[in-house]
C-alpha cells in the first residue's frame, strides 16, 4: 500500500535510468510492452466476454452445494454460498478492471490540465495549486480513499469520486514539472516569440511533449486503483455484495484459508497478475513514448 | 447487555461477530462435565486471546462485552446469575428478605468479604456503589436499569435496606447485573476517573497491567472471599484480531483460550488433539429488524412476508455450520419464561407470497439492509436473505457501512432493515423485552419504532407481577403477539464458540456470556 508519492518517486527514478540506456527498437521488440499488452488484453477480453465465458451465474446460490473442492463441474470449487468460484473470478475481472481503468480518466484530464496551467503561468496561481496539492499529498492514498468512501457511502460511484478526488494531484505534479522544464526549451521560446497565443503554445507545442509522461504514470495509477478497490472490497466497503469482486472474494475466502485455500488465494493471484500486466504495459509505454526516443 | 455495538444504554449486539454465539440446540453437555475435574492445581498464568480489547473497566457505563467480562473479574455484584442463567444466587451477600407489600428488600451481606486491598466490604460500600450506578442513567450508563430503586438505607455493617418504587419482579436480578458491582465507598477517596484507572473490588482478580490495545493482565486477589480460590496466579487477555492466527497460537500453546473461533473452523478444532472446542449454551438471539418509520415496513403483512420468506435452516447450515436452532420467539431458550410452544413465523414460501399479496405492495418493492462492514456473519446472512427475498419479488440492496456508521444510522432511524442481536445480561427477560417492545424503554423498541399498546401493557404487567406462574402467562402472550406482529424477523439462537487447550480445566461460560475464572486451573 504505498502512497502515490512513493510510487511517483520510484517511477521518476526508473524513468531517468531507462532514458540513459534506451535503444531505438521497434515496438514489437519491446518485451514489457508486448507482455503487458498480452496480459492486459486477455484480461480485458475475459471481462468483456464474462457472460459468455463464465460457466455459471456468479451470484446464483446453491446452499446445498457449499464449500466444494475443485471438480469437473466447478473447476475452482464453490464458496460458502455454493456459488461457482471460477465464475465469480471471471465476473470479478469486469468490476475491478472497469474501476481500475475508468477511475484514471477524471484525475488524468483534470490533473494534467491544471498542472499544465500551473507550470506554464507560474506565479500566484501556481503557488495556490501547489499548496493544495501538498495538502492532498500529506495523506496516504488508501487512507484518503477509505475516508472518502465512508463519507460518500459504498458503491461504484463513490469509489470513482473518491479515487478521482485523491489521485489528481500526482498528474498536477508530473505535468507541472515537465511544463516548467519545457518552457525554457528553444522550441517553446521560439513559438512564444513568434506571437502565438498561450493556449496554442501550451497545447500544440508543449502538450505533446509532456502529456506522455502523464500517460505513463497513469499505468501505475491503474495498478493503484485496482489495489484501492480490492482493498475496499476486502474491508467490506467496496461494491455491495453479492456482486463478484476480487477483494470481497478474498474477504469471504479468508475464513476458509486453512480448509479451502483456493477461495482467497486465486482472487489474490488475479490481482497480482493484473497489476503485473499493467505495470509491464507502463514500462513498455515509457520506452515507446519517452521524448528521448522520439528525437 | 453487552454488546458490542451499542453506544446507548443498551445493548444491541451486532450479531455475530463478536459474540459467537450459541447454540442452542445442543447446548452441549460440555458445561457440566467440564466442571468436575480432578484436584485443582494452583498457579500459572492463563492467556486468553480475543479479537478486540477492552475499552474501559468502568462497569457502570461500559457497553461492550470485551470490557465487561474482564472488569467483572475485579468487581462483583451482590448476587450472581446461576450457571444455567435462569436464576440468581447470593454472591458476596448472604441473602435477602422481602416485605409482604413487595416494596422493601433487606439484603444481608457476608461478614468475611474484603476488597483486594484488604479493606472489609460493608453496607456503606453497597449503598455508595448502587447509588453511583443509578446516577449514570442521565449520562448514558446502565443506571436506567435501576430506575425502580427508591431509597437505600444502611442498617448496620452487614445489612442494607432497599425500598423499591413499585412491586418490581426483576429487582434481585438487577442487583446481579455487573453494573451494580460493589466498589469502595467514595472510591476509597479518589475521583471516579482515578479509581477506574486501577479499580479495586471484591472479585477473584485484582488490577495488574493494561497495555491498551494489546493486553490486559489481572493478578490473583489474595484476599478473595471464596477461600482457596482463585487457583491461577494471573490472567492475561491479549488482542489477536485474526482468527486464523488465534487458531495457530492455540495449537502451538502460546495461548490457553481462544475467545472467538469461527464456526467454519469449529469442527476442525473439535477434532484437533490437545484442543477442546466447546459451544456453550447462550442467550443470544439474532434477528432482522425493520424500521417501521420507513415504508412499507409499517405494514404488518410486509414484515410477515419477509419473516416467512427466510429459510432459517439454510442460514444455520451455511453461516453457523449447523451450530444453531431456528428462533421461534423474542426470548432465547436460555432465558426464564421462554416458551417453546410459541409459534413465530417460520420458513414457508407460500405463506410469504400470500402475505405479500395482502400487503400494500403486492408486486414487491425495493429496499435495503444496513450491515457492518467486515462482519462475516452479517455479510453472509444478508446475502442469503437477499437471494431468498428476490424469490418473492423483494429487491433488497445490501448496504455495508463502517460499524460505527451503521450503528449511528440505525439509532437515528436512517435505515430500512438491519441485522442485530441480543444477549441477556441478567437472568430476567424484562431487561430485553423493555428494550425491545417499549418505545419508552430507551431505544424506540430496539430502534424499530414498534408500538403496540397491548404488548406494552403486557410487558409492564409482567414487570410488576410477582407470581412466577402468572408472569409466565403474561410473557407467553407477549411472545405470541410480538411474533404475529413480526416487528423483528427472528433468525436463530446460536451458542458461544470457545476453544481452549486441554490443559485448561473447569472453564465454563454461562448463558449470559460471563465466566468464572476463580474456578479455572491449569494442569501440566
List keywords for this structure.
heterodimer; A: 295 residues; mainly alpha; MetI-like fold; 12 helices; 0% strand; B: 524 residues; alpha+beta; Dipeptide-binding Protein, domain 1; D-Maltodextrin-Binding Protein, domain 2; Dipeptide-binding Protein, domain 3; eleven-stranded mixed β-sheet; four-stranded antiparallel β-sheet; 19 strands; disordered N terminus
List the helices and strands and how they pair.
The complex is a heterodimer of chains A (295) and B (524).
Chain A: H1 4-21, H2 31-48, H3 50-53, H4 85-121, H5 123-137, H6 141-152, H7 156-183, H8 186-193, H9 198-234, H10 246-254, H11 262-289, H12 291-294
Chain B: H1 30-34, E1 45-50, H2 65-71, E2 79-81, E3 88-90, E4 93-98, E5 104-109, H3 123-135, E6 149-156, E7 159-164, H4 171-175, H5 192-195, E8 205-211, E9 215-220, E10 234-239, H6 243-252, E11 257-258, H7 263-270, E12 275-290, H8 300-309, H9 312-319, E13 325-326, H10 349-358, E14 365-372, H11 376-390, E15 394-401, H12 403-411, E16 417-422, H13 430-437, H14 453-464, H15 468-485, E17 488-501, E18 504-505, E19 521-522
Parallel strand pairs in B: 1-10, 1-11, 14-15, 14-16
Antiparallel strand pairs in B: 2-3, 4-5, 5-7, 6-7, 8-9, 9-10, 11-17, 12-16, 12-17, 13-17, 18-19
Helix pairs in contact in B: 8-10, 9-11, 13-14, 14-15
Description:
The complex is a heterodimer of chains A (295) and B (524). Chain A is an all-alpha fold. Chain A has one domain: MetI-like (MetI-like fold). Chain A is built from twelve helices and no strands. In chain A, helix 9 (198-234) packs antiparallel against helix 11 (262-289). The model of chain A has no long low-confidence stretch (mean pLDDT 85). With 524 residues, chain B is an alpha+beta fold. Chain B has three domains: 19-30 and 75-196, Alpha-Beta Complex (Dipeptide-binding Protein, domain 1), CATH 3.90.76.10; 35-51 and 204-280 and 497-524, Periplasmic binding protein-like II (D-Maltodextrin-Binding Protein, domain 2, 3-Layer(aba) Sandwich); 284-493, Dipeptide-binding Protein, Domain 3 (Dipeptide-binding Protein, domain 3), CATH 3.10.105.10. In chain B, the strands form four sheets. In chain B, strands 1, 8, 9, 10, 11, 12, 13, 14, 15, 16 and 17 form an eleven-stranded mixed sheet that branches. A four-stranded antiparallel sheet of chain B has the order 4-5-7-6, with helices on one face. In chain B, strands 2-3 form a two-stranded antiparallel ribbon. Chain B is globular, with a radius of gyration of 23 Å. Residues 1-35 of chain B have low confidence and may be disordered.
